Amino acid sequence: AMMEELKLTHSQRRYLMDCVKRGDALPLQRLPPSGKQPVPASHPPACQPHRLPARPLLRPAKVCQAGDAYTREKFKPQPTRDLEKEKRRLQNILATGKDEMEEKVEQVLIQKKEEEIAEPDRFEELMNEIQERKEFLAEMEALGQGKKYQGIVLTEISQKMHEMEIIDKKRSEEMRRIMTKDFPSGNKSNL
């Protein structure tokens, strides 16, 4: 199709097909219109780019050995662990009979247990969330977008307040139970 687009003559097409069959490079210049085959321009060898052959050829052993293929990298060992740290650890084991690392692991486990026990108060979280929504609504009103978000934010705030009321009722019931256990003979109606 390309040959037809370039309107090559029959001899030019035959020349190009012969080049392809041999594996030679195609000519860089346009073929002359006459039936003569183009003569490649002779360039000095320094200017010609190095071309690889069309088919891979075996390289002689001298060429392979002349390259860097047979040279090995020198092994450069690096310290795999901190020797000073290992010395201090061994001294600690010999002096106290305990490994310093084991104590650190135990301390980390104790800290994790303490963090799990100290759960954040849900009532305070709800208070913070309501405050964030109020601040957001104030920012949107300052930007002129207050009407767009007012319904959504007020609905979320009312949901949070309803959840806070439920938590408050549960806490007050728990307080009543605790107070009635502490004062069983007292009048319950006064509490």
Structural notes for this entry:
Residues 80-118 form a coiled coil. InterPro entries: UPF0193. This is EVG1 protein. Pfam families: UPF0193. Keywords: Coiled coil. It is a single chain. The protein is an all-alpha fold and 191 residues long. The chain has a domain at 122-181. Helix content is 60%, strand content 0%. It contains seven helices and no strands. Helix 6 runs antiparallel to helix 7 (146-182). The longest helix is centred in the C-terminal third of the chain and has 37 residues, at 146-182. The termini are far apart. 1% of the residues are buried.
Topology, please?
Layout: H1 2-6, H2 10-22, H3 61-66, H4 83-96, H5 100-117, H6 122-142, H7 146-182
Helix pairs in contact: 6-7
Coiled coil: 80-118
Protein name: EVG1 protein
Keywords: Coiled coil
